[in-house]
Amino acid sequence: MSYPLEAGANYNLIFTTLDRSLIGRFFIVVSGPARVILRSMNTNPEQPSIATNTEVATPGVNIPTNATWKQNGVTIAGGHGHGDATNQLYTPHGLFVDDDQTVVIADYGNHRIMQWKNGDTTNGQVVAGDKGQGNGLHQLNHPTDVLIDKETDSLIICDRWNRRVVRWSRRSGTTQGEILIDNIDCWGLAMDNQRYLYVSDVVKHEVRRYQLGEKNGTLVAGGNGKGDGLSQLNWPRYFFVDRQHNVYVSDNNNHRVTKCNKGAKE
């Protein structure tokens, strides 16, 4: 499998040879996926060129092609029945996993956001809400999704039944959030590598992209009324945005997943 290379990214070139005597300086000539030629820069004409295979991986990804996964999972959050204790969840919805494997969870039925640190499966920490169901800035009402904005070290939350998207600082002592987008029947959230925020709307049957601070956004999927046409969605919930900013939508009531390519007119 080959991957597009990104400008400004660092890549490791890995090559192997069975001859330990081959040392010195070499030109590296990449002639295609999984093929690299090392051409000697030595003055010795008897020094051969070396043809070898290599693997170019996307940044941050290093999964062997023959990797396997354990068939039994482990509980990392909750698992003590539904409830509102710090070791419990109540109908959890969306979640986000940070680079250090900290997990933040939209604890839908408890009107709060919970955080579990990697390795601590005993108790979570309330990081937003948990002040009862309500519409105050210190409250949430059935949150359905959450993500971490690393640039501002904050949580962005889909506050579903308050019909708003809110931001809560992750700094200690934070007691309330601020409204980023209101009057929106949001369900799912995503943020791309340029810090554009994407939000699904289950009543308008669409997904929009917002620059932080913007109120109207740009339509990226659906927006043509409820339906099963290729330009329509029906109760879109969660979705994924890839590196090329294509959007994959879980089109809930159409029982399908659709892909919306960036730049496409249909």
Write the layout of secondary structure elements.
Layout: E1 26-32, E2 35-40, E3 50-52, E4 92-97, E5 103-107, E6 112-116, E7 125-129, E8 143-149, E9 154-159, E10 164-169, E11 178-182, E12 186-191, E13 196-201, E14 206-211, E15 218-222, E16 236-241, E17 247-251, E18 256-260
Pfam families: NHL
InterPro entries: 6-blade_b-propeller_TolB-like, NHL_repeat, TRIM-NHL_E3_ligases
NHL repeats: 80-119
Q: Your description of this structure?
A:
The protein has 266 residues and is mainly β. 0% of the residues lie in helices and 38% in strands. The chain has two domains: 1-68, no CATH class; 92-260, TolB, C-terminal domain (Neuraminidase, 6 Propeller). The chain has strands at 26-32, 35-40, 50-52, 92-97, 103-107, 112-116, 125-129, 143-149, 154-159, 164-169, 178-182, 186-191, 196-201, 206-211, 218-222, 236-241, 247-251, 256-260. The model is unreliable at 47-59 (pLDDT under 50). NHL repeats lie at residues 80-119. One of its GO terms (molecular function) is zinc ion binding.
Give a short overview.
One of its GO terms (molecular function) is zinc ion binding. NHL repeats lie at residues 80-119. The protein is 0% helix and 38% strand.
